[in-house]
Design brief:
The chain is mainly α. It contains seven helices and no strands.
């Protein structure tokens, strides 16, 4: 059973909760930083002068820059690396058709062809190892995204 949704809306709240739940010794060991530094990451900037940008803030900034370059694939990959082992999945908030049903159908066919080709290669030895799974996941995610765009086009009756 999963706990109730978190009240965490800011990155410092995560580190504050981690300090409270895991303790400063474990966090210092995990992050390889001083206790003072870990406390700075968990400090509320509205109430404390001794704060530092924490790793979540820095990762978020990096992902925003990648997204500005149009590299949503890399952003989704990084998020997938973080959350898939915890049983979660990456899905964009909103998916919109940019071509209409005909164009989206072509995109779905292309994506399906890539999945099929890669899956055939991976299954040559009748199993999918971890490296193959990691290569397959973004290709399958792209197929799902293209199918979602096709659904959007059909729902909006766009040809």
């Amino acid at each position: 059973m999963r706990p109730q949704p978190s009240h965490i809306t800011r990155s410092y709240q995560f580190f504050s909760a981690a300090l409270r739940l895991l303790g400063e010794d474990l966090l210092r060991t995990i992050w390889g930083r001083s206790t003072t530094q870990v406390y700075r990451w968990g400090a509320d900037p509205a109430r404390c002068d001794d704060v530092n940008r924490n790793p979540i803030d820095l990762l978020s900034l990096t992902l925003e820059r990648m997204q500005e370059l149009g590299r949503d694939d890399i952003v989704e990959g990084a998020l997938r690396v973080l959350i898939t082992p915890l049983g979660y999945d990456v899905r964009p908030k909103e998916i919109f058709s940019d071509k209409g049903a005909t164009g989206e159908t072509f995109d779905v066919n292309i994506a399906l062809g890539k999945v099929s080709e890669m899956l055939s290669e991976c299954l040559a030895d009748r199993r999918i190892d971890e490296d193959e799974r990691e290569r397959l996941m973004p290709v399958v995610a792209q197929l799902v995204r293209q199918a979602s765009e096709l659904l959007d086009a059909i729902n909006k009756r766009r040809v």
